[in-house]
Amino acid sequence: MEKEPLYLEPHYAGGKPGDVTLSLIDATLKVVDKKDIRFIFDKWFSVGQLLEFLDKNYQVEFVTLLRLHQNRVKEMQRIPKDRFRRLSETQRIAVTTTNTQNYTGKLKLIVIEEEDEDPPLPGYLTNVQEDIESRLIWEYSKRWRIENFFKENLFLHLDHLPGIDLAKINLLLYYKKVAYHAVTAFKKSLPDEHKNKHIQTIVEDLLEAEPFVKKRGDRIRVSFMGHRYEDILQPIFSKIDHKLEEKGIEPVYHWLNDDKIEFE
């Protein structure tokens, strides 16, 4: 069963990742089922003493990116080529065990070899015993996508929650995700020179500037005349009511007294 990720971003001025890990885990375990959790850490958490404590005292699964010290790079390079199997068109994967300073016992070492790229090879440490290495790699990549989404979309104020009521939090995040995907879809309609722009830049440059709006009877008419990007916006929104009708969608806005919006 697919589980929703829980993303935590601590701020610990002057401290180290290990200083806040246990507090984060305690907070996490209060809101999620311990049996259904796996912690995905970045390389700064690959500290043997910390991983030992998590393994022995919390009995939780973890995956962490390996810090590429020279001895680690050489260790991965010594893995025989026949130990690697195909992971994707450009990647091969090998699994072995390794020792980590201040960690009792062995940890599983997952190594990814990128074709046509020079070492160092990316490596992952984990205490997961199941043979699900491909899934662990996918989960780790998902972790970065989540982190980057939060970092790149701070302008949506995703960290400004309405309280502790989960229903209100879910509703607010739902609205913000809808807005994000709406702008993403809008981005696909833009000329090529704008398609590489960040979502925030598109919102600020093309959507925040107010168009000319006038109400006539049961119709609200919107014009981009004089807008900095009039030549881009006018063709996209022109006759949008007809485009919606062609798709079987009535271009009526119930929160605007069932008026229709026309873009000129």
TrEMBL record:
Give the molecular function GO annotations. Answer: DNA binding; transposase activity
For this UniProt entry, which residues form the secretion signal?
A: none
Q: Where is the Transposase IS4-like domain?
A: 26-180
Q: Which InterPro entries match?
A: RNaseH-like_sf, Transposase_11
Instruction: Kindly list the biological process annotations in GO that this record carries.
Output: DNA transposition
**Name of the protein in its database record:** Transposase IS4-like domain-containing protein
Q: Which organism is it from?
A: marine sediment metagenome
